[in-house]
């Protein structure tokens, strides 16, 4: 779990430095949906039942954007 949380923290720092805070709940939702759609694309392309590195990356980005949604819009 520590490794996963560290990856999320690193991804959060990258996103926070690269992009401004969410301006609205609609924007936050759209970003989360985009990340979820990217994970879904990876899932459909994978014929195995287990995840891979690309899926892990997308899942980390979803977790990061969910945290960003909470921090930017729900405080």
Map the helices and strands.
Layout: H1 2-18, H2 25-45, H3 53-73
Helix pairs in contact: 1-3, 2-3
Summed up, what is this model?
The chain is mainly α and 75 residues long. 79% of the residues lie in helices and 0% in strands. It has one domain.
Which structural traits does this protein have?
3 helices
Tell me the strand percentage band. under 5%
Roughly how many Å is the radius of gyration?
13 Å
Please state the average pLDDT score.
95
Indicate the low-confidence ranges by residue numbers: none
Helix segment tally: 3
Largest sheet: none
Q: What is the β-strand count?
A: 0
Q: Termini distance?
A: 25 Å
Which class do the helix and strand fractions yield?
mainly alpha
User: What sort of overall outline do the alpha carbons produce when their principal axes are compared?
Assistant: globular
Number of domains: 1
Helix content: over 70%
Order of helices and strands: HHH
Question: Can you put this structure into words, describing what you see?
Answer:
The protein is 79% helix and 0% strand. The protein is built from three helices and no strands. The longest helix has 21 residues. The protein has 75 residues and is an all-alpha fold. The chain has one domain.
């Amino acid at each position: 779990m520590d490794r996963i949380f560290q990856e999320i923290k690193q991804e959060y720092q990258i996103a926070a430095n690269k992009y401004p805070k969410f301006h609205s709940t609609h924007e936050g939702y759209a970003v989360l949906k985009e990340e979820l759609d990217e994970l879904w694309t990876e899932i459909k392309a994978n014929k195995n039942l287990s995840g891979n590195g690309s899926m892990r990356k997308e899942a980390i980005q979803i977790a990061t954007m969910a945290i960003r949604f909470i921090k930017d819009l729900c405080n």
